[in-house]
Each structure stands twice: as C-alpha cells, then as structure tokens.
C-alpha cells in the first residue's frame, strides 16, 4: 500500500493540493522539486566548498510541510571531568499530525569544541537543541534533501569541517640554535632510553615542540613509538596514518582510549597534508565517524553516571 504525503503550508492548508506517494519515483521527484524551490526561495541553504547545506530552518520548513512536527525534550546538562566544561545533550522526536513518532535525533554540544569556546551556557543549551532537531529531520528526510539537490548533513553539523578548512597557518615555533638543538636531542635520547610505555614516549615527544619538525628528532623517536604501536593516545613519528585508507583511519579513531586522545588524533588527521586531498564527502565521512566516537564516550559517561546514581 502506498502512503500519501501531502505537502502543506505553515497554516496547515495543502500546498497546491498536491499529494505525493513516496514509493512512486516520479511523485517523490515532484516533491523534491517543490521543496527545493521553497528552500532556495527562502535562502535556507549555505555554501561550503561549492556544496549546499541546508540550515535547520530549512529542514524545519521541509519537515513541517510534510506534517512532521519537532518535539524537543528538555536538554540535560552532562557532568564531565573537565574543569569549566559546559556540555548539554538533547533529543528531538518528529511526530506526524496524529501524534505518531516518525523519527528522532540525538545531539550534544560542549564549550570545549574549537568553535564553541566563547559560547555562554545558554548558547550551548540552544545549540544542543538545534543540532538534535537537524539530526532528527536528517534521519527521516535526508533522501528528500538529496533528491532536491542539497547535501544530507544539516549546516549546523558542518561548523567543525568549515572551521578546519578556514584554519589559519600553524603558529611559528621558536627557532633553536644549533647548540640548543644538540642539547635537546641529547636530553631526549636519555629520556627515551628510560621510556617503559607509549605514554612515556608520547610525553617526551610533546616536551620538545620546537624539535618536532627536526628530522633527527623524528628518527630518534620513531623506533620507540614503533615499539609501542597502540594508537589512540596521541600520534608520533612511526605511527601510520594513511588517509587513502579511510577504514584504517576509522579504526585508529575507534581505538582511542579517551575523548581527549580522540580529539588530538582528529586534529592531527585534519592537519595532515593528505586531508586537504580528500574530497568533501570523504572529509564529512571522517567527521561523522569522529562525532560518533565522541558520542560513544558520552554514552559511556552517562551509563557510569547512571550506575553511580543508582547505588
């Protein structure tokens, strides 16, 4: 049995009295063209690298015209171990005119995100709702946006990717004299010989930021990092990040043992020369996988918190 969807105006009246049967390709295309015209007319999409990403108001517009109403659950403040962090999670359900849930979305927002560090608490609270609503519509009518000629990711989820693309040149590190380089290499070598774990090697690697681009220092660290190959708690010379093999990169992200190390690895990935050679779809794929890994950490934190509360 084909299910008819009637496109409606905001006042509830049918838009040109059109009903669309989503199992019929031509009717679905007709619906996509109608929504595309409305989104473009109201300027509800934004351009990133030549691709059009619809803002949450555009998803609302498309969803409401399909009779999908967002029901926002009260955002919850999440307890974290990071001092000064403000983090909220939110869930949004989409219901039809009969009150039946047709889709839902979950999202989080934290002032520890690179583009949210200056946000006040109310803005973090609000963004968690906005993201959850966009995610709910995306999970339900992404096919419609794609057919309409837009990307299937809400614009609000693209701020991290956009920020990485607009990232300024790395800060200049201090230029060391030959004597300082020699002294640093000698000190590092002594410390590396004492290293008994990957964490020890990583600490030494990070203790000499001015030497990180020095080939001698890289060659000095490499055998020690290869000795402790577990990824997921920092990246050093000897670690392999082949961005041509996205599945392997995803495994490295999944193997992170903390959210902090996950963020650090993702930053290294997006700073790598090979990242700029990835197309928009591949960059978005990595970003979504990274976000999924972050969400897993948040779920684990919630579960732990729930177990503590239940005791």
Helix content: 40-55%
Fraction in beta strands:
5-15%
Assign an overall shape.
elongated
Structural class: alpha+beta
Number of strands: 8
The span between the termini is 50 Å
| Count of individual helical segments | 10
Low-pLDDT stretches are 1-22, 164-171, 305-309
Average of pLDDT: 75
Give the radius of gyration: 24 Å
Main β-sheet description: 4 strands, antiparallel
Count of the domains: 2
SSE string = EEHEEHEEEEHHHHHHHH
Short synopsis of the structure:
The chain folds into 2 domains: 4-158, no CATH class; 178-308, no CATH class.
Task: Report on the architecture of this protein.
With 311 residues, this protein is an alpha+beta fold. The chain folds into two domains: 4-158, no CATH class; 178-308, no CATH class. Helices cover 49% and strands 15% of the residues. It contains ten helices and eight strands. It has helices at residues 25-41, 56-64, 121-147, 159-165, 178-194, 198-206, 215-227, 246-254, 259-271, 280-310, and strands at 4-8, 14-21, 45-48, 51-54, 69-72, 76-77, 87-95, 101-110. Helix 6 (198-206) runs antiparallel to helix 7 and helix 9 (259-271) packs antiparallel against helix 10. The radius of gyration is 24 Å and the shape is elongated.
Throw out a few tags for this protein.
single chain, 311 residues, alpha+beta, 2 domains, four-stranded antiparallel beta sheet, two-stranded antiparallel ribbon, 10 helices, 49% helix
Structural topology:
Layout: E1 4-8, E2 14-21, H1 25-41, E3 45-48, E4 51-54, H2 56-64, E5 69-72, E6 76-77, E7 87-95, E8 101-110, H3 121-147, H4 159-165, H5 178-194, H6 198-206, H7 215-227, H8 246-254, H9 259-271, H10 280-310
Antiparallel strand pairs: 1-2, 3-4, 5-7, 6-7, 7-8
Helix pairs in contact: 1-3, 2-3, 5-6, 5-7, 6-7, 8-10, 9-10
């Amino acid at each position: 049995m084909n299910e008819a969807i009637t496109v409606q105006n905001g006042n509830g009246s049918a838009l040109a009295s059109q009903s669309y049967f989503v199992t019929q390709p031509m009717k679905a295309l007709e619906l996509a063209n109608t929504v595309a015209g409305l989104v473009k007319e109201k300027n509800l999409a934004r351009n990133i690298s030549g691709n059009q990403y619809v803002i949450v108001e555009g998803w609302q517009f498309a969803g409401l015209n399909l009779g999908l109403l967002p029901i926002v659950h009260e955002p919850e403040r999440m307890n974290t171990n990071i001092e000064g962090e403000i983090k909220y999670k939110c869930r949004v359900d989409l219901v039809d005119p009969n009150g039946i849930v047709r889709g839902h979305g979950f999202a989080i927002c934290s002032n520890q995100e690179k583009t949210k560090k200056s946000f006040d608490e109310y803005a973090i609270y609000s963004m968690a709702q906005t993201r959850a609503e966009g995610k709910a519509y995306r999970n339900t009518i992404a096919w419609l946006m794609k057919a309409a000629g837009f990307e299937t990711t809400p614009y609000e989820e693209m701020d991290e990717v956009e920020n990485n693309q607009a990232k300024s040149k790395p800060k200049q590190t201090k230029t060391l004299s030959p004597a300082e380089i020699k002294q640093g290499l000698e000190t590092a070598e002594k410390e590396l010989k004492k290293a008994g774990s990957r964490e020890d090697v990583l600490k030494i690697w990070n203790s000499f930021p001015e030497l990180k681009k020095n080939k001698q220092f890289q060659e000095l660290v490499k055998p020690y990092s290869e000795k402790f190959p577990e990824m997921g708690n920092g990246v050093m010379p000897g670690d392999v990040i082949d961005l041509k093999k996205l599945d392997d990169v995803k495994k490295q992200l999944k193997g992170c043992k903390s959210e902090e190390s996950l963020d650090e690895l993702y930053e290294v990935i997006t700073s790598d020369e090979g990242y700029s050679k990835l197309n928009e779809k591949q960059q978005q794929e990595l970003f979504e996988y990274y976000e999924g890994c972050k969400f897993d950490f948040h779920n684990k934190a919630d579960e732990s918190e729930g177990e503590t509360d239940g005791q």
